[in-house]
């Protein structure tokens, strides 16, 4: 869940602080989440408001990523020409979004990314299938999963075989 949160205390020597939302939710913010999001610890120390993605863990809530600081996204935009070994997989004519396959220098597949018409990377899809990547920009509809139908007797037989090999 995305929340606007305010730091409760300054970062200590251990590298974490707690954030509190207007809804009363308290979450742990570790400096690793700040660095992973492209910000600096000094930016967070000087801020009054953070937009963060909060997830629930074993010990309570913690911040997975910092999205903005005081409404500003300090991360530089990533352009498609910063990548090498690109192959365009498709383009949505209505929106102008393009799907790119990014591979390693030796031809190993790495991931899919989506860019806008100006070449700015909008999102990273990661290791998904070509159909899923194309469906992400509306080129094709994802295929429905095939469900194998089995009778109750078949299920009971398979369960019994699994329990007594």
What does this protein structure show overall?
It is a single chain. With 165 residues, the protein is an alpha+beta fold. It folds into 2 domains: 2-69, Nucleic acid-binding proteins (OB fold (Dihydrolipoamide Acetyltransferase, E2P), Beta Barrel), CATH 2.40.50; 80-136, no CATH class. It contains 4 helices and 9 strands; from the N terminus they run βββααββββββαα. A 5-stranded antiparallel beta sheet has the order 3-2-1-4-5. The chain has a 4-stranded antiparallel beta sheet with strand order 6-7-8-9, covered by helices on one side. Strand 6 (86-91) and strand 7 form a beta hairpin. The longest helix is centred in the last third of the chain and has 12 residues, at 152-163. It is flat and about 65 Å long. The model has no long low-confidence stretch (mean pLDDT 76).
The helix fraction, in percent, is 10-25%
**What spatial form do the alpha-carbon principal axes imply?**
flat
CATH domain class name of the largest domain: Mainly Beta
Arrangement of strands in the largest sheet: 3-2-1-4-5
Radius of gyration: 23 Å
Our count of helices gives 4
* CATH architectural group of the largest domain: Beta Barrel
Q: Within the CATH hierarchy, at the fold level, what is the topology of the largest domain?
A: OB fold (Dihydrolipoamide Acetyltransferase, E2P)
Could you give the count of β-strands?
Answer: 9
Q: Which H/E pattern describes the elements?
A: EEEHHEEEEEEHH
Please indicate the count of domains: 2
Strand content: 35-45%
User: Can you say what the CATH homologous superfamily of the largest domain is?
Assistant: Nucleic acid-binding proteins
| Alpha carbon gap, first and last residue | 46 Å
**Most strands sheet:** 5 strands, antiparallel
The structure class reads: alpha+beta
- Stretches where pLDDT is under 50 for at least 5 consecutive residues are none
